[in-house]
Amino acid sequence: MTRDISNKSRRDFIKIAGATTALTATGVFSPFVARAAAPVKIGIVHPVTGWAQYSGSQARFGAQAALKEVNAAGGIKSMGGAMLEAMLGDAQSKPEIGAAEVEKFNEGGASAIVGAYASNICLATTQAAAKHGIPHVVDVGVSDKIVSRGLENTFRFGPGFGAITKAGVESFLAINKAAGSPTKTVAIVNEETTGFGAGIAKIMTKGLAPAGIEVVEVLSHPTPNKDFRNIVLKLKEIDPDVLIPSHYYNEGVLFLRTLQRQKVQPKAIYSVLGGASSQFRFLSEFPDAAQYVMDCNHWFDPKNPAAKALQAKTNAAGLHFNYEVFLAYTAMMFTVDAIERAGSSNRAKIMEAMASSKWSGSIMPYGPTVMDKGQNTGARPLVTQVMGDKINVISPSEYASTSAVFPRPA
Question: Taking the domains of the chain in order of start, what are their residue ranges?
């Protein structure tokens, strides 16, 4: 008898357990079961193919590195540990393709977008995102048209070319004065396709004039550009004291190497957003062409431990710690901070959090965030100079590790 009761009890237990499992699977017992918070989708769009694929791939790495760090630390705390989910898009170095990727993000339920490197692509992606009310944080694009159009969904954490060029003029005049003011003439070489180069040339010309420095030539080129021989021959003919180039990485490499081959040696090469001028990749591949080149550009806070940690992680991945990486990383972290404070994946709430941001956890030398019509007014560039196998900060003084070498040695 005891045996029969035991077997019956066992059979009843199995039935009850099976029924409980079925009820749980159908959601009947869902109030008593902990459910994972729904992921927050973030669109990441960059040109990972086409003429800008190197820089776009670097930027994608930076954005994903930030996203992975947040997930590893427990996700969005205010949303119960919701994980971030990356939606990757390739702009193919074309504005219209970037805009099409934004449409895919919208259909896929993206709560925010980070990207899209080049100014002309950013102009297209932010406009496309505005149609759907998706907050879009620009990582690199420096054209001030990106934020001057009044799009409420668009935010840029880094400085635009106007602020960068103004700082570049001030720093150059200080460096020149400290050296006894040897600069009388300047030539500017700028890209003219994506919108920032021509603007820089105008601001530089106006800013240098009061110091008695004449801009004797402005030489523009398309992007992409595969031949700088004619431009360099022209520079050889006019022989300016200082060259000021402004362009993307590929053009920066080719321009500086052409100068070297043609033995054009001005007192200084002082670039503003100079593409290759403050790139570790260029320094490692062409150290002779890179020597003593100065650049007013995006740069991380060299005294920030988190910046050094990201640099180590980037190098370990076989990549170079260039501006694309740390700007995209920072843009993603700014986005995450807004989502955390919003406590929601709702696009409008995230936009409100971005507009009121006072975030101060950046690896950049910016201080607390202050957004004015989508532009972080606290953002600033640094001036660097290649010396040996290092890229040193030379201005402003609170971040400088050494003084400028100017004029550069023959």
Answer: 40-158+305-379, 162-297+383-395
Partners of 220 in the β-ladder: 190
Beta carbons within 10 angstroms of residue 234's beta carbon? 13
SS3 at position 218: strand
Q: In what order do the strands lie in the sheet with 242-246?
A: 214-221, 185-191, 242-246, 268-272, 294-297, 382-387, 390-395
- What's the whole-number mean pLDDT along residues 36-60? 96
Q: Is 198 exposed, middle or buried (0-12, 13-18, 19+ CB in 10 A)?
A: middle
Whether the CB-CB separation of 125 and 45 falls below 8 Å is answered with: yes
Give the CB-side neighbour count of residue 271, counting CA atoms within 13 A: 31
356: exposed, middle or buried (Cβ count in 10 Å: 0-12, 13-18, 19+): exposed
CATH fold match for the domains 40-158+305-379 and 162-297+383-395: yes
Neighbours of 133 (CB within 10 A): 13
CATH class name, domain 40-158+305-379: alpha beta
Interval 285-330: pLDDT, tens: 999 999 999 999 999 999 999 999 999 999 999 999 999 999 999 9
Q: Exposure string (b/e) for 279-295, b if CB count within 10 Å is 16 or more?
A: bbbbbeeeeebbbbbbb
Residue 120, CB-side half-sphere exposure with 13 Å CA sphere: 17
Provide mean pLDDT across the span 58-83: 98
The pLDDT assigned to 410 comes to 81
Is residue 357 within 8 Å of residue 379, measured between CB atoms? no
SS3 283: helix
The structure's pTM equals 0.89
How many C-beta neighbours within 10 Å does residue 70 have? 21
Which residue, chain included where needed, has tokens 């840029």?
156
Contact 365, 383 (CB under 8 A): no
Please name the fold of domain 162-297+383-395. Rossmann fold (3.40.50)
What CA–CA distances, in Å, run from 91 to 153, 190, 308? 20, 24, 30
Cα of first residue to Cα of last residue in the chain, in angstroms, is 106
